[in-house]
Structure formats: structure tokens, C-alpha cells
Design a protein that fits this description.
With 648 residues, the chain is an alpha+beta fold. It contains 14 helices and 31 strands. Strands 3-2-1-4-5 form a 5-stranded antiparallel beta sheet. It has a 5-stranded mixed β-barrel with strand order 6-7-8-10-9.
Length: 648
């Protein structure tokens, strides 16, 4: 009788308007209940019955009601669902087909309403792509999805690669091309340097060789280095089909056991690869250095050339020889090549000392390599150190990139620049307070400047405190690319622009074209568009995420196959969260999570301070980031891509 009474409706609206509402993100737990996270410091409890209306990751508006003296979330409106397009596995339950999303916190399979529409013979466990079409918080009776396409059979050994690349919308094979599109542009004059003893140094398995070097030293002690870089833009014209493909891909994607090239292999591994005894077109940069390692910029010269590499060398062979390792199996085939290596080694040492004094050096970090069989079985995971041959090539390329950045800046005022702004400005006050704890004085005004940043970085390197380094690293800004000259704080240079990997990076192809306009005086140069920069930055972000995800997946497979359960490892604590610690195994680089419940039995006596990177037990320091501890691997979970361990 009173159901539609206007006075009663008005009263309900009035009472309803007084109930507080909040917007936040749903976080689920393993126990059925969840929390609505408003910010890093505020969250509200979601009971199991209300969690049935939402999914982990949903952004919602909810009412907050008091029940049993506790604030409880009642979901009211969906702002943005966590699931949209996603990858999952087929699960058949009785007569119905479900798709289990491949996300750690989404454990319930979701009903598929169009399974019969696909023609493929899809079986239980097979991987598919789907889209969420019904959501309970939108008033639907159930969550349901539509199947979009088949992704991979469950037994396919390439599942980690296929699924991850599909999720991040990345290419899985080399680009398709028409042979008639690959035509060499022979309209530019090139200097013939094929008589010089250029050499290449790379991994022994590398096929897309894009840099070669030649060096000589005058009687007055001046080093003259020529860095020759492969010239794919002589085959790929601006805005052609191949150019558009390269722009969309942006990078060659180097994954464990699988490389996906930016350019067709006929270019990247053949016509543009600087193979031994093969005449190749290049853009070259001649750089002069004095006996202290200073670049004599007035003598720097960019030009087009033909070269012919006289030796195709590997990092390990060159390093073994220069480091005088016992039982050397390789030696330079001629005195000319031997002389090249000795001079390059001398220059590398000069430039390393120069950069330590006037710029910045890279922090030595281990690189972990997956060795896979032809059938993609993981044979082993090992540490690959950066040896002297790596540093020789690195110093030569850095010098060439600095010279290119200066030339582009002086002649054009634009290009593709690699930039890094140092610390996030919002962190300056916190940084000075943190440094003062370690007796290091700092000035906020200096932290804004390249000189001040380099000064502080050198102080930190001399202090050599891993705990402080990890905390400081969290406060750094992210590197990005820009079309105007800007400093690269992390390298210590006022301008920096890469052009030495044009086979592998589209941004380097752009700089090649600009350098050619400067060299030849032909054509009109335009500043790279902002939308192109955004595409490149976005692609780099997705590639890095894919590489991380594939490696995590492979670690799980490796640990399960090798049965490392209950084995003890040395590990470094790299981060601390409210729920536990992230550690990295020193032996193979695997990330292992140590739950807080394994750190101390009594929850109320345990504090995991993420900001300080310290675990306290009863007010005493128990663990800190950078500590080396022993942990036992307890489990490797394929569903969550996580390895669980506990301290020993």
C-alpha cells in the first residue's frame, strides 16, 4: 500500500543521501572477503557476500555502513571494470563452458556465452582471448564473457611467449614484406672505407650486427675512432609500408629464447647486417680524443660511407684474450686486428676514467640469461657478467651518441633525445632528510641541476651503501624520449641521442634521417611529432612488461621442473611490503616472495615498513632491504607466477 507513496520515497532519498559514499579500487583476498582501497593509507572492509558483486581491481563507488561497530562496504556503482579484454583458459564444467582469467586474484571462472561460435577445436586448458560483457554491479544476474579468438593450445611449449605477447598486444613474428619494396637508395655519395680494418664485437649468436669500429693513434697521442653504423634508412624510405611497420613495432623485442625483429630479417640479418668481408652502407662518425679521454668536438665529423668488416668477433673471445685468461682458444687472426683491440682497450680505459670524473658510470649489475633448447626447454639460468669487450663497445657507442646529440642540437635544435630528469621534484625534501641520516649534506637547489645530481651520485658511489642506494633509486624519475634537447641525469650528459641501433630501434632510424639531412644538405628536417614519441614510449613500456612477465613464467617452470622445492638459496632483500618481502636469488635472479607470516609468528609484534625498507619485530630491526639472507623455496605457483620462500 505504501510502496510508491511519494512521502515515503522522499524520506528514503533523504536517509540514503546521508549514507557516506566513497570511490576506490576493490582488492580481494584468498579468504573470500576484500577491501576497498581509497588510497595508500585508507581502506574499508568488504564482506564475502558483497564481494560476489565485484571483481578484484574494479573501480567502484560504494556506500559505507556501520555493522557491529565496523565500517563495511556496500558496492553501489561500477566506474571502471578491471576486466575488459583479457586472456584466459577454457574450463568445461558439466554442460557449460567457462573462461578462467589469467590473473592471480581472479580465481573464479566466468561463464562464456558464445563458445560454439568459434570453429577451432578448443579443449580444456586451451588459451583464448575474451571480453567481459555482463557485470553484476551493472544489474546483470551474473558475470559473463564473450570469446573473441583462440590464442594457443595448452600443450604448446611457446605458451608463455604467445600468451604474454597477446596480452600486451605485441607482435609474435617478423614483419611481412614485399620483395619489391626493398630497394637501395643509391642517390647519396659515400666515402669508400672498405680498405680500413673495421671490426665488429657482439654476442657470438648475433645476426643483426649494426655497429663496427676502427681506431688509430697519432704520434702526438690523439686517438681517432670511427664508429660505423648500419644504414637501414637507405632501404626504408620515409612513410613507406616498411617504415610504417617499423614505427608500429618501434623496437626489436629480445626475449629469452625468442627475438622478434622490428625490420624484416632480409634487412636486419642480411642486407643491413655488418657481416665480415661484406660491403655495407653506413653512417659514420669520426671522433678524436686527447690523451686524457676528452672528446675534441671541433674535429668530430659525420659522413656516409662504405665499409667492409675484417673481423666478426665475440665478447667472450675478445675479453678472454685481453684479460689473458688461461687456456685461450682464440687469438686475433692478424697483427692489424690485434692492434685494433689494444687501442680500443686503451681508449675504453681513458673514457671510463673521464666519465667517472666528469659524468657518471653505470652501476655494475648482474645480468641473468636463460639458456633454452631448440624445443624451448629451460636448460639453465646463469649470470653473464659485463666484461671488458662489452665496455669497449659501450664506451665507443656512448661517445658516438653524445656527438650525435650535440650535432642535432646545434644544427637543428630537435631530434630524438634520451632524457632523464634525475629525482622527482616532489621527493627533494625527503631526499635531503634521508641523506642527512647518513651524514651526507645536500642542497635542494643543487638537486635540480645536472652538476648537483652528478656530485651527489659520485658521493653515493664512494659511500657504497646498498641500503641507501635502493632507497634513493625509488625516488628517481623515469627515463623517456623527447624531441627537444634535454639533459640525461643518469648518464651525466647535458644532451644524449642514440643513433647506433637503427636496425633495432625506430627512434634511431629517425635520428639517422636527420643526420643524413645535415650531412648531405638535401631535404627538409622536421621535429619528430609528439604522437610518434608517445607511440615509442608506450611500446617500450609494453615490451618491458612482457619481458618481465615471460621471465617470471619461465622461472616458475624452471623451479617446478628442477624440483627446487625446499632447497636453500642466498638471496638479497630488494623490497619490503606490508604483506612481506621481495627477495632476489643470487644464483639465478629469480624473485622470491617471503610472506609476513613467515617473518614472525605474532602479527601484532611485526611491522613491515615499506617506506624505510625495514622489518621490525617488537620494535627491533629484523630485516632491511639490501640484506643478504638464506631462504628456502617453499612453492612455485604457476597460477600467480610467484615463488614463495621463507627465511632460514
Amino acid at each position: 500500500m505504501f510502496h510508491n507513496h511519494p512521502l515515503l520515497s522522499k524520506l528514503k532519498r533523504k536517509l540514503n543521501s546521508k549514507i557516506p559514499r566513497v570511490e576506490g579500487i576493490v582488492r580481494s583476498t584468498n579468504k573470500g572477503f576484500g577491501f576497498l582501497e581509497i588510497n595508500s593509507n585508507t581502506s574499508y572492509f568488504i564482506p564475502p557476500k558483497n564481494m560476489r558483486k565485484v571483481m578484484h581491481g574494479d573501480r567502484i563507488i560504494a556506500q559505507i555502513k556501520i555493522e557491529n561497530f565496523r565500517e563495511v562496504v556496500y558496492p553501489e556503482k561500477l566506474i571502471e571494470p578491471f576486466l575488459s579484454h583479457f586472456i584466459g583458459q577454457i574450463q568445461r564444467l558439466k554442460e557449460k563452458v567457462y573462461i578462467k582469467p589469467d590473473f592471480p586474484y581472479l580465481k573464479e571462472p566466468i561463464m562464456c556465452i558464445n563458445f560454439d561460435s568459434l570453429k577451432e577445436n578448443i579443449q580444456n586448458g586451451d588459451w583464448v582471448m575474451a571480453v567481459l560483457v555482463q557485470h553484476r554491479l551493472k544489474g546483470d544476474n551474473q558475470f559473463s564473457v564473450k570469446l573473441i579468438k583462440f590464442v594457443a593450445k595448452n600443450h604448446n611449449p611457446l605458451v608463455p611467449w604467445i600468451v604474454t605477447l597477446s596480452r600486451h598486444k605485441l607482435e609474435m613474428s617478423e614483419p611481412k614484406y614485399n620483395a619489391h619494396e626493398i630497394v637501395f637508395d643509391n642517390n647519396s655519395e659515400r666515402i669508400d672505407l672498405t680498405n680500413l680494418h673495421f671490426i665488429t664485437i657482439d654476442h657470438c649468436s648475433t645476426k643483426d650486427i649494426d655497429d663496427a669500429v676502427f681506431i688509430k693513434k697519432s704520434s702526438s697521442g690523439i686517438y681517432s675512432l670511427i664508429v660505423a653504423i648500419s644504414d637501414p634508412t637507405s632501404y626504408v624510405s620515409l612513410e613507406s609500408t616498411l617504415d610504417n611497420i617499423a614505427l608500429q613495432r618501434a623496437f626489436t623485442n629480445y626475449l629469452p629464447g625468442l627475438n622478434i625483429p622490428m625490420l624484416p630479417k632480409i634487412l636486419s640479418e642480411n642486407k643491413c647486417s655488418l657481416k665480415k668481408n661484406t660491403r655495407r652502407p653506413v653512417i659514420a662518425c669520426q671522433i678524436s680524443f686527447d690523451c686524457s679521454g676528452n672528446i675534441l668536438y671541433k674535429n668530430t665529423h659525420f659522413f656516409l660511407a662504405w665499409i667492409m668488416s675484417k673481423a666478426q668477433l665475440s665478447y667472450d673471445s675478445v675479453s678472454d684474450w685481453l684479460e689473458h685468461k688461461e687456456k685461450i682458444t682464440w687469438r686475433p687472426e692478424s697483427d692489424l686486428i690485434s692492434n685494433q683491440l689494444h687501442l680500443l682497450h686503451e681508449l675504453c680505459n681513458l673514457r671510463t676514467r673521464w666519465r667517472k670524473k666528469y659524468a657518471l658510470l653505470f652501476k655494475e649489475r648482474p645480468e641473468y640469461v636463460f639458456k633454452l633448447s631448440n624445443t624451448f626447454e629451460i636448460l639453465k639460468i646463469y649470470v653473464e657478467p659485463r666484461r671488458i669487450a662489452h665496455k669497449i663497445v659501450e664506451e665507443a657507442m656512448i661517445a658516438a651518441n653524445v656527438c650525435a646529440a650535440r650535432l642535432l642540437s646545434d644544427k637543428l635544435g630537435f631530434g630524438i633525445y634520451n632524457t632523464h630528469s634525475g629525482f622527482e621534484p616532489s621527493n627533494f625534501k625527503y631526499i635531503t632528510e634521508l641523506l642527512s641520516e647518513f651524514g651526507i649534506s645536500s642542497n635542494v637547489d643543487e638537486l635540480h641541476t645536472l652538476k648537483g645530481f652528478c656530485k651527489l651520485k659520485n658521493i653515493l658511489d664512494n659511500v657504497s651503501n646498498d641500503y641507501l642506494d635502493i632507497r634513493i633509486k625509488k625516488l628517481l624519475s623515469f627515463a623517456e624520449i623527447n624531441n627537444i634537447p634535454s639533459p640525461h641525469f643518469a648518464l651525466g650528459f647535458p644532451v644524449y641521442a642514440t643513433w647506433t641501433s637503427p636496425i633495432r630501434k625506430y627512434s634511431d632510424m629517425i635520428n639517422h634521417r636527420l643526420l643524413k639531412i645535415i650531412i648531405t644538405g638535401k631535404g627538409k628536417a622536421f621535429s619528430p611529432r609528439r604522437d610518434i614519441l608517445n607511440k615509442i614510449n608506450d611500446k617500450r613500456r609494453r615490451i618491458r612488461m612482457a619481458e618481465r612477465d615471460i621471465e617470471n613464467w619461465l622461472y616458475i617452470i624452471f623451479f617446478k621442473n628442477k624440483n627446487y622445492k625446499n632447497k636453500i638459496f642466498k638471496a638479497k632483500i630488494v623490497d619490503i611490503f606490508r604483506g612481506g618481502m621481495k627477495t632476489k636469488l643470487l644464483e639465478n635472479g629469480a624473485n622470491v616472495f617471503v610472506p609476513a607470516s613467515f617473518l614472525h609468528n605474532t602479527k601484532d609484534e611485526l611491522i613491515c615498513d615499506q617506506e624505510k625498507g625495514i622489518v621490525y619485530v617488537m620494535g627491533e630491526k629484523y630485516y632491511t632491504v639490501s640484506d643478504i639472507i638464506k631462504i628456502m623455496v617453499i612453492d612455485a605457483k604457476i597460477e600467480t607466477r610467484s615463488i614463495i620462500g621463507k627465511p632460514i
